[in-house]
Amino acid sequence: MIDRIDNTFRKLRENNRAALITFLTAGDPSISTTLKIIKKLPKAGADLIELGMPFSDPMADGPTIQKSYNRALENGTKIIKIFNMVKFFRKDDSYTPIILMGYYNPIFKYGVDKFIENARKNGIDGVLIVDLPSESDKKIEKKFYNSKLKFIKLTTPTTNSLRLKKIISKTTGFLYYVSITGITGAKINSFKHIEESYKRLKKIAKLPFVVGFGIDTPEKANKVARYADGVVVGSAIIKQIENNKNNDNQIIKNVLKLTKQYSKKIKTAKLGEK
Q1: What is the value of pTM for the model shown?
Q2: Is 248 part of the annotated catalytic residue set?
């Protein structure tokens, strides 16, 4: 299995810049439109692609992504359809990492073993399960570790050092830092804690440090990228889909335009730059 995530971060590190990670809900407004978008995202500047697996009770997500999940569920989006979509994506793109982000309930219903097998088979590189804490069922965690899928974990501004070390010990691929103590779509008002958390992590781990939640403008992405190995943009992209949900061509055009704007700003930020 190609280690696309490690390869991507290594190349970006050589160029002293952060990754742009774009988040979309798979199936919003449709699976076919999501596929069209993700096929074009790498050329627009996305270094990694994160796909949300829609769920009816997304507790960590704000109104924008909740509505996006509802639209995808109404369209009949299921895990098997997401796998098939990624399989088609992989016919033309064998290098851009794809990460699935979501909640444990749909994975449990689908079957953990079957989920892992099909994720690997269809070209998924990593999984982030939002509501699976570090103290979760060790059997489940072991299955993911043995699968060679990257098992990405979350940390927050309030995570203490002892818990952070525990989370890091169970994380592969990269560590996802939730930049705000709230839901997706909220806004970052201060960047100091990101800088401090980045420095704290780098003292105890070599994992890439990725920041998400609240990065609602390219200018904020530029500031975050100075103290992060990756920047996740989600709600800003989803809003483009919501605002043009009856016009697929406009959705694609706007999402790619926004991605280029974020990419340009991130590329001008250098790690450690004030």
Answers
A1: 0.94
A2: no
